[in-house]
Write a structure and sequence with these properties.
By secondary structure, the protein is mostly helical. It is 84% helix and 0% strand.
């Protein structure tokens, strides 16, 4: 797991470096389209293809444990290919509208997002194969190489002075594909996809994707809302808002380290029917997340503007109220994530998707608030995260009470 931790560290750092260099090179207004493209690739890539990685890894791991049975991944591969096809069709047919709504009429950026999602499908599938075959060294190397390529390419563009929206966008397309091809042989990926031993068992991919996608939409709703609501004269504000999100939500990136080990440990407790241990683990995670969130909000309140200046430059300024609200929304989202992970350990993906969906609806309604645009969007993020936190918390309580009651019923004597 050390390899994975190092890879995640390099990859996480690359996001800050990439956005900072693009912002300094292109300026707030021009870099806004690149920032929104980065946001979309994160939201849709994780939402649509992380379940592909997780399910591929789970099935391959189970096959290794049972001597090679059950490795038929035809349904998983079909899901990936079908999703990619839909993305391409939507991107081609909807390019004019998408460009006008999200990217300030920059149509080449639409192509960047489409190609970037195709590349992410390959990368997530490859990571699923690596995880399922216990090649975590290669898994970490892929993440680290992806991040290193982004840093190197963005640095070269910045130093050359020849950076454009398209050139920076293409970095997001090329880096994950090259990193994948350098760490996994294409014939290995094809061989795994073509295996026919075992049966192509039906899987709950629909509910998994729904839970993952709705959570990512809520997490990334701010930059997308800014892109849609900002006028032509407010494109600079949109770019500054994305910069503020990346800085104010640093604790949320750190939470990924907790999340990586949290769900597997909860799943083991559920398998052992250890109700007390399960509740204790969730309680500890909530306390740790709350502490991280409070420290993050306090840190942003004091050092937020300095961090923005240090990373992005003097042009990237935003109001204190909006900056603090973004940090608060990140803290609330972390707490909601703890409950979501606890419910996923019980295979309650549909309930999680509904709770995230409730937060999305609440956020959209809160966008009607009559504040300055950046404050309105930040306020909407807080409202959405609060609603999802409450819904997930109530659902978790009901789930645990039901589980505790069923666990207390003695099993019949064989």
């Amino acid at each position: 797991m050390l390899w994975v931790a190092v890879g995640l560290g390099v990859f996480g750092l690359s996001n800050f470096v990439f956005l900072a260099l693009a912002g300094r090179d292109l300026g707030p207004a021009t870099s806004a389209a690149v920032s929104v493209a980065w946001t979309l690739l994160n939201a849709l890539g994780i939402g649509l293809f992380q379940p592909l990685e997780q399910e591929t890894g789970r099935r391959l791991s189970a096959a290794r444990a049972t001597g090679g049975t059950g490795t038929n991944l035809r349904l998983m591969v079909r899901y990936g290919l079908f999703t990619v096809a839909v993305i391409v069709v939507v991107g081609v047919l909807g390019a004019p509208w998408i460009a006008d709504a999200l990217f300030g009429s920059a149509r080449p950026v639409v192509a960047v997002v489409v190609l970037g999602l195709v590349g992410q499908a390959l990368a997530y599938y490859a990571r699923g194969v690596l995880a399922g075959t216990d090649r975590f060294d290669r898994y970490g190397e892929q993440l680290a190489l992806d991040g290193a390529l982004r840093i190197a390419a963005a640095g070269a563009l910045y130093l050359s002075g020849a950076g454009t929206q398209l050139s920076y966008g293409l970095v997001l397309v090329v880096a994950p594909v090259l990193a994948t091809l350098c760490t996994v042989r294409p014939r290995t990926l094809l061989a795994v996809a073509r295996r026919t031993d075992g049966t192509a068992q039906a899987t709950g991919m629909a509910s998994l994707v729904a839970a993952s996608s709705t959570g990512q939409i809520l997490a990334n709703l701010g930059p997308l809302a800014m892109a849609v609501m900002a006028t032509a004269s407010q494109q600079g504000l949109s770019g500054r808002f994305v910069a503020a999100v990346t800085v104010a939500r640093i604790p949320l990136f750190l939470f990924a380290a907790i999340q990586a080990v949290f769900l597997p440990s909860l799943a083991a407790l559920v398998a052992r029917r250890d109700v007390a241990g399960f509740r204790g683990s969730v309680r500890k995670a909530m306390l740790a997340s709350a502490a991280l969130g409070v420290l993050g909000v306090l840190g942003i309140s004091v050092l937020g503007h300095w961090a923005l200046w240090l990373i992005y430059g003097a042009d990237f300024t935003i109001g204190t109220v909006a900056l603090v609200l973004i940090a608060v929304s990140g803290a609330l989202f972390m707490l909601a994530q703890v409950f979501a992970q606890a419910l996923l350990a019980h295979h309650s993906e549909r309930a999680v998707a509904v709770c995230w969906g409730a937060g999305i609806v609440a956020s959209v309604l809160a966008l009607l608030a009559p504040f300055e645009l950046s404050v309105t969007v930040a306020f909407a993020l807080c409202v959405g995260s609060t609603v999802s936190l409450a819904a997930l918390g109530l659902t978790y309580r009901s789930q645990v009470n039901s589980w505790r009651t069923s666990s207390s019923i003695p099993e019949p004597t064989p």
